[in-house]
Amino acid sequence: MPPPAQILRKETGTGRGRATVTTEMLREWQRLGEQRMDEAGKLDGVARQYGVASNTRKNYLRADGKLTKRAEDQLRKDGEGKDRCKLK
Question: Region labeled Disordered — which residues (predicted)?
Fold first, then answer.
C-alpha cells in the first residue's frame, strides 16, 4: 500500500491549535480557483493546509469553492471593495 499523500501546511503561527481565519487566508482562498482547490485536496484539504477546522471553513467557503457572505463581509471590513470579493 502506498504511503498517504503529504499535504504541505501553511505556517499559521498558531502552534498545534487551530488557526483563526484571517483576511490574508481569505484572499488566498479567493485566488485559488476550483482547479487549484481540487489539487489541494478539495475544500477540506485547503482547510488542513491552513490549520483550519472543516466546520470553521464552512463558514467562509461554500461547497463550490466560492466565498460566503461572511467571508466577503470580512474582506470588505478590512478595506477591500465589493468588486474584489467576487471570484473570477
Answer: 1-20
3-class secondary-structure state, position 67: strand
In tens, the pLDDT along 4-33 reads 555 555 554 444 456 788 999 999 988 887
* Alpha-carbon span 29 to 1, nearest angstrom: 32
Q: CA-to-CA distance for 85 and 26, rounded, in angstroms?
A: 9
Q: How many CA atoms lie within 13 A of 50 on its CB side?
A: 23
Question: Rounded to an integer, what distance in angstroms lies between the CA atom of residue 68 and that of residue 79?
Answer: 17
Beta bridge partner(s), residue 67: 61
Q: Where are the beta strands (DSSP E) in the chain?
A: none
Matching residue, cell 498558531: 14
